[in-house]
Amino acid sequence: MSKVTTLKLGKMKESGERIVALTAYDYPTALVLDGVGVDLILVGDSAANVVYGMKTTLTIGMEEMLYHTRAVAAGVKRALLIADMPFLSYQVSAGEAVANAGLFLKAGAEAVKIEGGRPVKEVVTRLVELGIPVMGHLGLTPQSVHRLGGYRLQAQTAADQEKLLADARLLEEAGCFSLVLEKIPAEVATRVTKELTIPTIGIGAGPGCDGQILVLHDMLGMFDNPPFKFVKRYADIAKAIRQAVRAYADDVRSGRFPDDQHSFHIDAGH
Length: 270
Prior knowledge:
TIM Barrel; alpha/beta; 13% strand; 8 strands; 11 helices
C-alpha cells in the first residue's frame, strides 16, 4: 500500500474511493491502525476525554498534544498523520498559529486540523502559504461547546445550513485539503460533499461524506457508557480487559501464576 498524502486524498475523492480515518494517541495503537491500512490517523484533542477523563476538549494544551503526536508518529509509516490544534493554540493570532503548527510538524505530524469557519480563514490561508497542510472542521466544533449550548445536532435550520456551506467554501478557498463535518444532518453533509472539490470526512454526518472518522475508544467499546447515536461499536474491549485482569488476579491469588513455564531456573551445566 502506497503512502497516503494530502494529494492522494483528493484523488480518492475523485475516484469515489472511501477514506478510512480513526484517532490514535499512542505508539502501539498507531502501529495497529497503520498496519491494517487506515488512511488517515488523527491525534485528536479528544485525548482530553478518552485519555485524561475530562468533560471537554478545552482542557488539553500544546504540551500534551505534542507528546501524543510524537508517540503516534513513531508508529505511522503509510497513513496521513494529522494533529488537532488545541484550544487557543491558533485563535489568538496567525503568528502564534504558525509557530504552534510548526511544532506539530516537528513532532511528526504531516498536517494540522483546526475548528471553525470564517473567523479562522486568515489563519488557514497563512498556514497553507507557509507549506503547512490544514484540515478544517465544521458543524459541531467541540472547542465551541459552550457557545453551541452543548453537543447538539448542528445545521438544523435553513439559515444555519447555508452558513455552514458558505464556511465550507471559504475553507476550501483558503487552502484546506479536507474538511471534517461533525454531527450535522446527513442531507446537509451530502450537499456540502457534492459542492466541494476537497474530500469531506464525516462523524455523525451520514453516509454521503467522502470518508468517515470515529474516536477509537468509542468504536472499540473502551467505556461502558452508551455510545453516541453515530457510533457503531465493533468490539467490547472493556469487557475483554476485565476478563483478562480477573483471570490474572485469580491465577496470582491461587498460585497458578507464575508456573514453571513462566519461570527461570539455574542451568544445571554451570
